[in-house]
Amino acid sequence: MAATHGATLETATASHLVDMEAFFCGPRSDDDAGLAACRWLEEGKILYFAQSPFPLPPGDVEVLLRQRQSDHRWHKNIAYRPLQDRLTGFDAKHSDAARMHEIMRSFSRRLLDYTATLLPAYARVWRLDYASFRPLEEQGRQLRLQARNDLVHVDSFPKRPTHGDRILRIFTNINPHAERHWITSDPLDVLAQQMGREFAQHLAPPAGPALWRRWAARAGLPLRPYSAYDETMRGIHRRMKESALFQQSCRKNHSHFPPGSAWLVFTDAVPHAVVSGQYALEQTVIVPRAAMLLPERSPAAVLERLATPPQQRRAA
Ligand SMILES: [Fe+2]
């Protein structure tokens, strides 16, 4: 089953995902298309392409499909760092190593070229993060709770703080035979509104520096600068996964991404889980908060509202 089925533009944009091929069939200018795409993303929608606009050559797909990673914590994904032109998580002595590097480099470049044309307002200021290849079947993976992808969560990078800038991820399913099945929920700004005080109490209590950080600082050890935003987002990520109540009760929109499809989403705001799927490629870019068209909907604005006493909010 495809992510959308026979969707008109109206029905596609009204749902949790936007059928971009239907959108491109209608009348529009490139400027309008770029702004509409940014707005949909910031509203928490998934931009969906039934056929990836940056397809891989069949020979590259063949090489990727024959990779079998050991299911080790540090080899969860094969990663490509475009800024350093570096491949990690793959045995450098493997006979496919040079080819893998070349495939990941060209995938990342083609994807970024296309996405920059689609979203020029973001591309002018975005920072390149990693690309990754996910060769393992997600269904039934035995992982510790915090590493599980099948629990609904928002993304937060423990080692790469964004300080309120946004995590935009672009995916493609290169599995020739099987869909990639996702669940997504309401974006953080909608959740915060719906849950009211419950959101602050259960998912986003104020975060202070962790005990280990205070000890390390006292001991004079070198530390990355502390970011209250990233600590809180990490806390939301953790609490969502730990809360059986949230996992059971949150709204669940199902997306079935067929072979060859592609999709874009702000995964820091849109809670998501991967139910099943094997062989996906992904590229992340970090978009500065200042580039948002709807800044009040970004997670940083949600957290700032939570930290502002109600009387001050009314006065503002
Ligand atoms: Fe995630």
Describe the structure.
This protein is an alpha+beta fold and 316 residues long. It has a single domain, classed as Jelly Rolls (Sandwich), CATH 2.60.120. Helices cover 37% and strands 18% of the residues. It has 13 helices and eleven strands. The strands form two sheets. Strands 1-2-9-6-11-5-3-4 form an eight-stranded mixed sheet. Helix 7 packs across helix 8. The longest helix has 22 residues. It is globular and about 60 Å long. It starts with 8 loop residues before the first helix and ends with a helix. Fe (ii) ion binds next to loops.
Summarize the structure.
37% of the residues lie in helices and 18% in strands. It is α+β, with helices and mostly antiparallel strands. The longest helix is centred in the middle third of the chain and has 22 residues, at 97-118.
Key attributes of the depicted protein:
binds fe (ii) ion; three-stranded antiparallel beta sheet; alpha+beta; Jelly Rolls; single chain; 11 strands; globular; 316 residues
| Low-confidence runs of at least 5 consecutive residues | 4-9
CATH C-level category: Mainly Beta
Radius of gyration: 20 Å
User: Which cofactors or ions or other ligands sit in this model?
Assistant: fe (ii) ion
- CATH architecture, please? Sandwich
Note the run of SSEs as H and E.
HEHHEHEEHHEEEHHHHHEEEEHH
SSE blueprint and pairings:
Blueprint: H1 9-14, E1 17-19, H2 20-25, H3 30-42, E2 46-49, H4 58-65, E3 78-81, E4 86-88, H5 97-118, H6 120-123, E5 127-134, E6 166-173, E7 180-184, H7 188-195, H8 197-203, H9 211-218, H10 228-242, H11 244-249, E8 253-257, E9 262-266, E10 272-276, E11 280-287, H12 299-307, H13 310-315
Parallel strand pairs: 1-2
Antiparallel strand pairs: 2-9, 3-4, 3-5, 5-11, 6-9, 6-11, 7-8, 7-10
Helix pairs in contact: 7-8
